[in-house]
Amino acid sequence: MKKRYLIICALVSLILLITSILFDYFEITSLKTTYYEITSEKLEPEFNNFKIAQITDFHNTKIKKLTNKLIEEIIEEKPNIIVITGDLIDSEDTKESLDLITKIKNIAPIYYVTGNHEAEIQNIYNEFEQKLKENGVNVLRNEVANIEHLDSKITIIGIDSPEFMASSSILNECEIIFKRKLEELTENLNTFTILLSHRPDFFEEYINRNIDLTLSGHTHGGQVRVPIIGALYAPNQGLFPELDKGIYEKNKKYMIISGGIGTTGLPLRTFNKPELVVVELKTK
């Protein structure tokens, strides 16, 4: 009887394991497009219906099925601009990331900022950045640019991930420099302003600097999510993070955190499909 019970338990465990693997494979190769509308009095009428496609945390994914879906969806959406908010690469292998760029560069202008994974491979990063620029990508490394559309304009700011800003994180040196740099970049803002920043955990800083819309990533939406509860963990926030995925608002300022495309560490995206974010600006 005991032997029979053990066999049944083993079979049930095997079935659950196989089911879990199949479910995660389905999740990791699927793609969800999430739509947001941002309305602001600061937007001039020319920017009504201006569309932004956001890619984040691509992590040089080698899943062709997923990448092809991503490209097809961006083509279908016909965005005015494409933004990439960090962790485009995952290691010194950059082939898939550059292939993605070559396939989307003619859809719309691309604006890109770094993530922590770019900082981890600084020995080859400069070469990678040069290839991005050769493909027409606007690499914003602590820079301010204007996006002109129908004789009107908005401001777009790109800031490096804090890991680029100091040789060590002793005494929060990276974070201190990051905040100082953000303050410099946001002086004298007088138009609708979009910030591209890999790290969402500085949300209060973004609000205080009068940024209208921040587009961010880094969390992977927790990578593993539990229904109702949400993300179990996010980097730089720990267990049960408050800022994991979706849209956040305070004082009529917004931050959108995309769940991203790829994975790092364990190849899991449980209850958390890869995500393309599409933002449409609306004038009041």
What are the SSEs and their pairings?
Blueprint (H helix, E strand, L loop, with lengths): L1 H28 L2 E9 L10 E5 L8 H14 L3 E5 L9 H10 L5 E4 L2 H4 L2 H13 L3 E2 L3 E7 L2 E7 L14 H13 L7 E4 L6 H6 L4 E4 L8 E2 L3 E2 L1 E2 L3 E2 L6 E5 L2 E5 L17 E9 L1
Parallel strand pairs: 1-16, 2-3, 3-4, 4-5, 7-8, 8-9, 9-15
Antiparallel strand pairs: 2-16, 6-7, 10-11, 12-13, 14-15
Folded structure, characterized:
The structure is a single chain. By secondary structure, this protein is α/β, with parallel strands linked by helices. The protein has helices at residues 2-29, 64-77, 95-104, 116-119, 122-134, 173-185, 203-208; strands spanning 32-40, 51-55, 81-85, 110-113, 138-139, 143-149, 152-158, 193-196, 213-216, 225-226, 230-231, 233-234, 238-239, 246-250, 253-257, 275-283. β7, α6 (173-185) and β8 (193-196) form a beta-alpha-beta unit. The longest helix has 28 residues, at 2-29. Mean pLDDT is 90; it is low at 10-23.
Quick structural overview:
The chain is α/β, with parallel strands linked by helices and 284 residues long.
Biggest sheet: strands, sense, closure? 6 strands, mixed
Order of helices and strands: HEEHEHEHHEEEHEHEEEEEEEE
Distance between the amino and carboxyl termini: 72 Å
| Radius of gyration, whole Å | 20 Å
Mean pLDDT: 90
Tally of DSSP β-strands: 16
Main structural class: alpha/beta
Number of helices: 7
Low-confidence stretches: 10-23
Features:
7 helices, globular, alpha/beta, 31% helix, 16 strands, six-stranded mixed β-sheet, 26% strand, 284 residues
